[in-house]
Each structure stands twice: as structure tokens, then as C-alpha cells.
Design a protein that fits this description.
Number of strands: 6
Helix content: 40-55%
Number of helices: 13
Number of domains: 1
């Protein structure tokens, strides 16, 4: 007598686990020779310096809620920090976060923050684990002052900041739990690297991407971006230095977002003004 064993269907998380692991291997195997001109310079923007972020979150949430989840891995693509702690819970069902930056010195502060979040159940515990005064003092001793950027970040997100309430904090922790965070050292203004990054991300859905004011730093980035598999539903968060508020002690680009990669490229080209404030930290990579 034949007996049939009942099997529960695999969860979506189980289905994409192997694909996410393969994504990590592809990203790690991008050859050093195609990464472009990179460095290990300390930079002060370990916190967000885009202003008015809370104003765009309702629209971001609305557009993200319309996206359909597929069996493909869902990856959030961030340039540098990308406000990861305060945006982690915005896109649904993210399977991995990918942080790309020209300087690998940015990766340690990002990992420090994520580790502190995952190790904590309260905001008070987070502060103990993260130990922001120690980190800031270390950077200040090296001639880098992130304090003004931290103040801008708190004001920019307001009640949406991940430390503004325990509910926000726990939502961030839930969103980051058991999610790989891949760091990729590369130059977004170097075509071979952008092509290699795009190849590594093939087969993934990218519902959310953040490029801050990268187009103002390197306008040619916009011409290279189509190699990365964003689509017409990707929420692309970015910022512009045109019309930034006056009176602040560090650059304060205005937070914006576009729906779809084509809209982002058109919107950013229309708003772009070349800026050079990053040169003092990372050099001229245009």
C-alpha cells in the first residue's frame, strides 16, 4: 500500500534563502580591478544629512504598498548608510540590504549601528551598545565630526526616526532581524563596476533604492545606472543640493523620491547641480 507523505509548502523565506546566499557570493566576487578608484577615508556622513525626509515618507509608504511580492529575492540597495535604521521597516518583505560605497570606512559604523539594534530590546539598551559618544569622539579625534549630521538626521526624520519611539525602534529591529547586510566597496561613477554590480543583482527585485545626492557629486552616474536592475516600480530615494536650506554648518540636500528608475533619472537630471563638498573627504572622482 502506497503511502503519501504530506509536505508543507516551503515559505517564501526558505525559497529565497539559497538565492540570497548566492547574491552575497556574487557581490563578494566582483573583481577588485573593476571597482574603480576607491579609498578607505573616514567620512563624517555616518548619519543622514538629507533634510525633510519625514515629508516624503507618506508617499514612499503608499507606493511601496502597491508593489507585488514575487518569488525573487527582494533587495534594498543603499548608497552608503542610506538611513538604514530609519527606513528598514518601510519596504515589506526585504530579504537583504546592500550598501555600496566608494570608501569602505563607512561600513564599520553601519555595522556597529545594526549590531546595536539587534542586540537591544529598548532604546536605552541601544544607546549602551552603540555608545555614540565613544564613536563620535574617535571620529572627531581623526578630524571628522559627525555631530552636525546626527542633528540633521533627527530633525529630518522627526517622529519617523527609529529612536523617536519604542514602536519605531522595535519595527526597525524586526525589519533587520535575520536579514543579510552586504557591503560592496566600489565607485558608482565607474562603468565596469556599475555593470558588475548590475550583473550581481540580476534575478533580484529591488523595490527600494537610495542614492542620496550622488547625482550631484557625479552626474555621469545617471547614465550608468540603467545597468542596475531597477524597474518602474522601484522607489528611488535621493536628494538635491539645489535650494537647500541656509544657515546650517554642513551640506543639507533636500530629500526627494521618484517612482521608477526612468523617473528618477529624469527628475535628478532636471534638479542636478554639481557640488564638491565631498572632495575634501574622498577626493575628486568625477
Amino acid at each position: 500500500m502506497n503511502k503519501t507523505m504530506n509536505r508543507f509548502p516551503l515559505s517564501r523565506k526558505e525559497l529565497v534563502k539559497t538565492q540570497i546566499g548566492e547574491l552575497g557570493r556574487r557581490l563578494a566576487s566582483i573583481p577588485n580591478g573593476v571597482r574603480g578608484e576607491v579609498n578607505s577615508n573616514q567620512v563624517p556622513w555616518i548619519c543622514t544629512n538629507d533634510v525633510g525626509f519625514s515629508d516624503i515618507i507618506p508617499g514612499i509608504r503608499a507606493d511601496l504598498s502597491k508593489q507585488k511580492t514575487t518569488d525573487k529575492p527582494r533587495v534594498a540597495l543603499l548608497s552608503g548608510v542610506g538611513s538604514i535604521a530609519s527606513i528598514a521597516s518601510l519596504p515589506n518583505d526585504i530579504d537583504a540590504f546592500v550598501s555600496v560605497d566608494i570608501t569602505d570606512a563607512i561600513f564599520s559604523p553601519i555595522q556597529r549601528q545594526v549590531d546595536a539594534i539587534l542586540a537591544s530590546n529598548t532604546i536605552e539598551e541601544y544607546h549602551k551598545h552603540y555608545n555614540q559618544p565613544e564613536l563620535f569622539a574617535q571620529l572627531q579625534a581623526a578630524g571628522i565630526d559627525p555631530q552636525p549630521y546626527w542633528e540633521i538626521e533627527k530633525n529630518s526624520f522627526g517622529k519617523e526616526h527609529f529612536l523617536a519611539s519604542i514602536d519605531n525602534f522595535l519595527a526597525t529591529k524586526k525589519a533587520l532581524t535575520d536579514k543579510p547586510l552586504y557591503f560592496v566597496h566600489g565607485n558608482f561613477n565607474h562603468k565596469p563596476f556599475v555593470d558588475a554590480l548590475g550583473n550581481a543583482l540580476q534575478g533580484c527585485d529591488i523595490p527600494y533604492a537610495s542614492f542620496t545626492d550622488l547625482a550631484d557629486w557625479s552626474p555621469s552616474f545617471l547614465d550608468l545606472l540603467p545597468a542596475v536592475p531597477l524597474n518602474n516600480e522601484t522607489v528611488v530615494v535621493w536628494s538635491q543640493n539645489k535650494g537647500q536650506p541656509e544657515g546650517l554648518t554642513v551640506p543639507t540636500p533636500l530629500a526627494r523620491y521618484s517612482l521608477g528608475v526612468k523617473s528618477y533619472i529624469a527628475d535628478a537630471k532636471a534638479a542636478t547641480i554639481e557640488t564638491s563638498y565631498q572632495v575634501q573627504f574622498i577626493g575628486d572622482h568625477k
